[in-house]
Amino acid sequence: MTPSRAAFAAILGKDLRSELRTLQSLPAMALFSVTTFVIFRFGLDRTSLSGSLAAGVLWATLLFAAVLGINRLFVAEREEGGFDAIRLAPIDRSVLFTAKATALLVYLLALELVAVPIFSLFFLDSAAALGPLVAVLLLADLGLAATGTLISSMAVNSRARDLLVPLVLLPLVVPLMIAATGATEPLLALGGPGYHRFGTWLMVLGLYDLIFGLVGYAVFDFLLED
Amino acid sequence: MHALLAAAPALPLGEGGKYVAGAYIVFVLLLVIYVGIMAAKLQRIERELRDLAGFAEARTQGEEAAPGREEASSNV
Amino acid sequence: MYGKGLRTLSIATVALLAVGLSLVFFYAPIETNQGFIQKIFYLHVPLAITALVGFVVGGVFAIAHLRSGNRKWDAYSYVSIHMSVIFGVAVLLTGSIWAKASWGHWWVWDEPTLVSFLIVFLLYATYYPFRYAIEDPERQARYASVFAITAGAFVPLNFLAVRMTQSLVHPRVFATAEGGLPNSMLITFLFCFAGIALLWVTLVKFELTAKSASGQVKRLRRALDAPATSPSSRVAPEVS
Lengths: 226, 76, 240
Prior knowledge:
Chain A contains ten helices and no strands. By secondary structure, chain A is mainly α. Chain B is an all-alpha fold. Chain B has three helices and no strands.
């Protein structure tokens, strides 16, 4: 195993184990989602949702819950000297980016494992759309993980870091949201799942993932300089 | 007819004219505001340079007047 | 020396803008669909294109900064983005006026280019609080460069995504700009575009010169050991 691969596995493993043990982000994100669904139920005065309204509620909630997790992504690194450790290790520093982004991806998928079925329970007539929705969720999560990791790593070294992530991240993920809701809306249509421009939206998501994955990987080294 | 319209500087203020005028006025306004802010910055730079020049002159005059004074005062 | 050539640039800018403006009102024909309102586009579109190119240029300067470590590129990047944000305000305001004139509302979600521009503008508006939140100046410059590069990559993707939300064939208001544009309009547009683009360059140079002068004052103050009379900006990068 190359040193980079070993480092990747080590960082990822440490992160997941730490989260499993302390459970500081995941329960909060999941709980937040469910509560937000309830707020939407009363805010919109609706007990069932379909089409664009359903897609909007789902994705807005997932996004805001993700921000909670993204805020906390690098806190351990900052407090326990993880950044210094990476700087000293004789490996490609961008491995911290890929490892953390993968960890964030895992958290997002775990969040959705809880939030999406509950969303379906609360608001949807049938669960037929949930299968194809997985593809949309996966691709969107990849983009969210890349961009979120990048912004989080910058925000953690600043003042007002909890403000910075939502502020800078939200405009950046607008194209992601456009594509994700674009694909989800016909899936959650009243008559049954539709696939209008489904492939096109998935491609846009893929393009976003590619671009921001590459950008994040390329610039991460400069973020870690002393 | 087209040539006639093109030749005359028409300002049909009844219809879209006021919006076009508004757009160009907004642009000019922003430009003027920017120039105003930069003017304030330049004034500050000028004032600081003046202060610094005065400070430097006072210092050289002070050194000429009493070249040994600094050493004496440092003993105290 | 940042101020060198500033006078020539300014004169050229004023000349081009004067010519452009005259062309708009004395030469360009009235467009058949929109009527007189279409004249806003000779101002709005050059501003928009210049602002967007300015953002990308800011990203390019940021790349130069990260690769060379020379802080002057960071100053170039900062001022480029700063100027493009200001031009962006003009774009949104003129776009809103056009929307009111064409559709009766001060804002419409139907025009994808305007909406995309709003999102880009919102992103770059976060550049300032972002810089301000990072205290160490060297780190601030580096992070700002990363931001500028990321945002630069974001711009085309954003336009693509927003454009795709237009499912119905929307009467492209700017169909007059692509294909079928009469020469008189094209010439007018090109002069206006050249004038606005040169205005951007002139103002960027102007601002860099002012920053440089400020930097020299600080340098002088340090050399003379004089007390500081006014607080220094924590956001804007120093130029010296």
